[in-house]
Amino acid sequence: MDPNHYRFRGLWRLAAPASAAYAALEDFGGYPRWWPEIREARRTGPESGEVVVRALLPYRLVIDLETRRRDPAAGVLEATMRGDLEGWSRFTVTPDGPDSPDGPDGPDGAGCRVLFEEDARPGKPLLRHLALPLHPVFRANHAVMMRRGRRGLAAYLAGGHGSGAGGGHGDGHGHGHGHGGDGGRRTDDS
Description:
alpha+beta, 4 helices, about 25% helix, globular
């Protein structure tokens, strides 16, 4: 096992239409409104941006993001990460209606599933040096961040934000968190 290689995979089930969840995730600049660990999100170009992330541990990550894929029809938002984390992350948003194996999540079957996948390595030298002894702590920190992100997005969407197919303030980043994916059910693999 390479302690500097992290693979995350997580599933968020939300009581909101897939189009609303996609719009909120596409709105890169809006992440700090609903995700407490995303301290700042700013555009640096038409398909790029920078986020500042800080969870429970006393360090912050500055991550440059560039859109790799944005496909509203497939519900996919994917970005390349550079800086304090190197790699890629992806959200895939799909409806979770009455015909899904688990039944409806939202009113009238309007729920959705948000699959998060990430493959990353620390770019920050200190994190690389501490990877072996602190690998489980870094993963736990990530899990807390993802749970809070899921809760924040669920509350944000319940308040009527992110409505409208393909709406939001999409600034072309795909997504802005720079790392993450557990949220309700933990399905991380490393």
